[in-house]
């Protein structure tokens, strides 16, 4: 039985995936690297410490990784006023809370970016804990962030809600069930490659909230 919920934020609760793609692509262009949008999109959801090497190779990471991350941060900062919730995001959080489960944000983003998302979502009263990559040594697709976040809400059998193959991969490593939404723009095939053939996939948070009784989170109310 699930005893807690871990929520990814970027792409899952706020519609930021393609903003990240634009910011990363511009950062690479300014450092003389042309990276296709599709390849950048495929990397969104992993930690920024891993993204540069994954899309451009170890040599680029060694010589330009920190500069690229710094420029991406500046560019993404300039788009924070465009951050908006995904469809039904706040309602999903409140629906889960009504089921009596503790909830934690498990975010790979920076604190200021998470703060912008939190302002848009306006569900802080439902959130019991927050963990970011600042709390761990290794980012997604490793499972460190999920384990630390679960510990913060004392959950021994949590469920992760995410939007990317990297969320699914981290959950698999942690031995956690994962519920996936399509709001990150990833295909069902890409999500199931990491989440398994039986992975539960929903159109968006609103769809998941409507169908919560079909998941481990809705089969028995806790309050």
What does this structure look like?
The protein is α/β, with parallel strands linked by helices and 223 residues long. Helices cover 47% and strands 10% of the residues. It has ten helices and six strands, in the order βαααααβαβαβαβαβα. It has helices at 17-30, 37-43, 48-56, 58-77, 89-98, 111-121, 144-152, 165-174, 188-195, 205-210, and strands spanning 5-7, 103-107, 129-132, 159-162, 178-181, 200-202. β4, α8 and β5 (178-181) form a beta-alpha-beta unit. The mean pLDDT is 93.
Gist?
With 223 residues, the protein is α/β, with parallel strands linked by helices. It has helices at residues 17-30, 37-43, 48-56, 58-77, 89-98, 111-121, 144-152, 165-174, 188-195, 205-210; strands at 5-7, 103-107, 129-132, 159-162, 178-181, 200-202.
CATH architecture of the largest domain: 3-Layer(aba) Sandwich
Sheet-strand content, in percent, reads 5-15%
Multimerization state: single chain
Query: And the CATH topology of the largest domain?
Result: Rossmann fold
Low-confidence stretches: none
Helix percent reads 40-55%
Global outline: globular
Please count the beta strands (DSSP E, at least 2 residues each).
6
Q: Give the overall pLDDT as a whole number.
A: 93
CATH top level class name of the largest domain: Alpha Beta
Q: Major sheet: order of its strands?
A: 3-2-1-4-5-6
Radius of gyration from the alpha-carbon trace, in angstroms: 17 Å
Mind telling me the CATH superfamily name of the largest domain? HAD superfamily/HAD-like
What structural class results from the helix and strand content?
alpha/beta
N-to-C span: 14 Å
- The number of helical segments is 10
Order of helices and strands: EHHHHHEHEHEHEHEH
Please indicate the count of domains: 2
Q: Largest sheet at a glance?
A: 6 strands, parallel
């Amino acid at each position: 039985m699930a005893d807690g919920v871990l929520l990814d934020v970027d792409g899952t609760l706020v519609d930021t995936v393609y903003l990240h793609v634009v910011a990363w692509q511009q950062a690479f262009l300014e450092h003389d690297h042309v990276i296709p949008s599709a390849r950048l999109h495929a990397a969104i959801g992993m930690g920024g410490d891993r993204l540069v090497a994954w899309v451009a190779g170890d040599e680029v990471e060694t010589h330009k990784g920190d500069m690229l991350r710094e420029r991406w941060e500046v560019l993404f900062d300039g788009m924070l006023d465009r951050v908006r919730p995904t469809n039904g995001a706040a309602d999903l959080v409140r629906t889960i809370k009504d089921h009596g489960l503790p909830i934690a944000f498990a975010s790979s983003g920076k604190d200021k970016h998470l703060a912008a998302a939190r302002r848009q979502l306006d569900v802080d009263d439902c959130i019991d804990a927050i963990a970011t990559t600042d709390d761990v040594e290794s980012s997604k697709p490793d499972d460190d962030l999920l384990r630390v976040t679960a510990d913060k809400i004392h959950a021994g059998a949590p469920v992760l809600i995410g939007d990317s193959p990297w969320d699914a991969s981290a959950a698999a490593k942690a031995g956690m069930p994962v519920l996936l939404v399509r709001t990150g723009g990833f295909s069902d095939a890409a999500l199931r490659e990491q989440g398994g053939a039986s992975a539960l996939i929903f159109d968006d948070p609103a769809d998941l909230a409507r169908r919560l009784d079909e998941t481990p989170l809705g089969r028995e109310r806790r309050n």
